[in-house]
Fold this protein.
Amino acid sequence: MIFDKDGNITIITQEKASVKTLVNNIEQVYEKYKNGHIIVNLSSLDKISLEDIIEFLRISNTHRGDKKSFVIVTDNVDLDMMPDELCVVPTLHEAYDIIEMEDIERDLGF
């Protein structure tokens, strides 16, 4: 698990461990990163199931409830099958775009 900071965005990149392990690790260090936006980059993982993505639901709901963006990046899933409560995009560039759009929506009070 690799943590990178880009302004108020933390990018968490997973390389080897399972998604369940990643979610547990994020929950353990969440207090340190909860004040900024979070991008979870799963692009390096070959197999990702809908159940894997749903593992992020609790932490995503908590983070988004605090008016911060939580975006998952992977192109190894059927994006049409993803739950509406989770923001899943195929590229890191799109993750940044989502955060920018959500910031604008928050500024406008939506």
Notes: The longest strand covers residues 2-6. Strands lie at 2-6, 9-13, 37-41, 70-73, 87-89. The domain at 2-108 is CATH 3.30.750.24 (Transcription Regulator spoIIAA).
